[in-house]
Amino acid sequence: MRVGFIGLGSQGGPMARRIAESGHPTTLWARRAASLEPFADTPATMADSPAALAARSDLVCLCVVGDDDVREVLTGANGVLAGIAAGSIVAVHSTVHPETCRGLAKVAAAQGVSLIDAPVSGGGMAAEAGTLLVMIGGDAEAVERSRPVFETYANPIVHLGEVGAGQTTKLLNNLLFTANLATAESTLRLAESLGISSDRLGEVITHGTANSFALGRVVSAGGNLDRLAAHAGDLLRKDVGLVADLADAAGVPPGTVLDAADATLALMHRTR
């Protein structure tokens, strides 16, 4: 399968490299030439626009940052949909609002193109190791056609339902992670107040029933959220806000997990 990849950051870069080095003919595009330089040692070729990339691709993967970026790359001047052929697939690996993907899927369908949402979790190191988690919403046939490409950088690959289901699942994952950060940080602070070293408590809990990925991140960051806030605070605020909007639109109470996530944002000096 011919693959086009857009979004070569810390997450997308390793994904694109795995695709290119696996033997799939791969085309890359980036706004900045510097983003393409690390791929000079791969078989990947470069395109001068998203439309040109799409014209060479059966599957176009997007790993850009937000909703506006996804819309621009797909529907803007010389965007992906300006060059893509009927029967092709677009996979949105970005974490965005489910309605963004549903709306764009309708636009793509009018051109005979399948759009699936396929957000990922695990980070660049997991992509390099081929162990990313991919959560997918969309047409089952399009998912299965795309699976051999996803398998170059991901395991497991979970198909959750119609378009938007992958995004909803990823947002719920990020909501719980955000909530866990506050409970982990406050537990470590409480330990210090009770005369127990937070470092030693963290060491103990990582081998116990209360262990979590969030706890490990807080412990490695020195027992507080300052370092995490600097590089992930705005993204977590975005994702928590999106989940809150989904719950509000559905008329369902989000429960204590949202309260805990809001507490994390406060510790990061951010508000939803």
Reconstruct the topology from this structure:
Layout: E1 3-6, H1 12-21, E2 26-29, E3 45-46, H2 50-55, E4 59-62, H3 67-75, H4 80-83, E5 89-92, H5 98-109, E6 114-117, E7 120-121, H6 123-129, E8 132-137, H7 140-150, E9 154-161, H8 165-193, H9 198-205, H10 213-220, H11 226-250, H12 256-267
Parallel strand pairs: 1-2, 1-4, 2-3, 4-5, 5-6, 8-9
Antiparallel strand pairs: 7-8
Helix pairs in contact: 1-6, 8-9, 8-10, 8-11, 8-12, 11-12
Oligomerization = single chain
Helix content: 40-55%
Classify the secondary structure makeup into a structural class.
alpha/beta
* Number of continuous helical runs: 12
Query: What is the N-to-C succession of helices and strands?
Result: EHEEHEHHEHEEHEHEHHHHH
Characterize the biggest β-sheet.
Answer: 6 strands, parallel
Q: CA-to-CA gap between the ends? A: 41 Å
List low-pLDDT spans.
none
Instruction: List the strand order in the largest sheet.
Output: 3-2-1-4-5-6
Q: Could you report the average pLDDT, rounded to the nearest whole number?
A: 97
Proportion of residues in extended strands: 5-15%
Give the total of beta strands.
9
Shape: globular
> Taking Cα atoms only, what radius of gyration do you get, to the nearest Å?
20 Å
